[in-house]
Amino acid sequence: MSVQALYTAATGMNSMQTKLDVIANNLANTETTGFKADRANFEDMFYHHEKYPGAQDSAGALTPNGIEIGTGSRVQSTQSNFSQGSLQQTSNELDVAIQGPGFFQVRDPSGTIVYSRAGNFSRNSNGQLAIGSANIGRLLEPAITIPVDATAVSISAEGVVYYRVPANQTLQQAGTIQLASFINPQGLLKMGENLYQETDSSGTAQTGAPGANGMGTTQQGSLEHSNVDPVSSLVDLITTQRAFEMNSQTIKAGDQAMQTITGLFR
């Protein structure tokens, strides 16, 4: 059984190492726009059943408890926390934050529609709104074009984009930002670069204007901050480290027990 303790404790160390990786990624993204913190979910592994609960003993009575020895733990999944991050005001009129549920729709250079909570938009050489670096070509979907000579841009809470040009001081409409929502946002595939991709698990994207049909609203001149809580993450880091150390101590104890048992048969 001491041999089993070595393997069981090793699964615990491996699980804690994965959790440590998740925490490290969260802390590394405390300043990433629109980032959603992850957590590692665990499950216990299969059991050795030396005696089943309810089995009959030598007297014919039913045993109230069995003898079940577990074989460790493993990571079941990693789960994202899609709670709202705080909004930070900026001086950029093309910065847009989502207050509430929803994702911006972005067309990847490959033609695939991907999704993001980061609204740090810019204009490319054609005046089209793009997310992140305008040179990459990830354009807002549906496309919105603002003339190069526009002197002011205004975006309403409902996602309507207006602009003003020197020759005409009347606000003109460039288009409306459309948001997407999912039945199961946990099922979205994380691609990096603040992007998510639809999967069978997430369900098909439901699109609509901000503020309609349960969608969040847009706030111009703001960006959504990462929802990572550094304090709780550091506490989690310490407890994870301690759990890792306890499992390593279990391995040492099991090894010492094996040495003792081996010595008895010499």
Helical proportion? 10-25%
As a whole number of angstroms, the C-alpha radius of gyration is: 27 Å
Largest sheet report: 5 strands, antiparallel
Number of helical stretches of at least 4 residues: 2
- Average pLDDT, all residues: 91
What's the structural domain tally? 2
Please write the string of helix (H) and strand (E) elements.
HEEEEEEEEEEEEEEEEEEEEH
Q: Which word captures the global form? A: elongated
> Which oligomerization state do the chains in this entry correspond to?
single chain
Main structural class: alpha+beta
Report how far apart the termini are. Answer: 19 Å
Number of distinct beta strands = 20
Low-confidence stretches: none
Strand content: 25-35%
Description of the structure:
It is built from two helices and 20 strands. With about 270 residues, the chain is α+β, with helices and mostly antiparallel strands. The chain has two domains: about 120 residues, no CATH class; about 140 residues, no CATH class. The strands form eight sheets. Strands 7, 8, 11, 15 and 18 form a five-stranded antiparallel β-sheet that branches. Helix 1 packs antiparallel against helix 2. It is elongated, with a radius of gyration of 27 Å. The model has no long low-confidence stretch (mean pLDDT about 90).
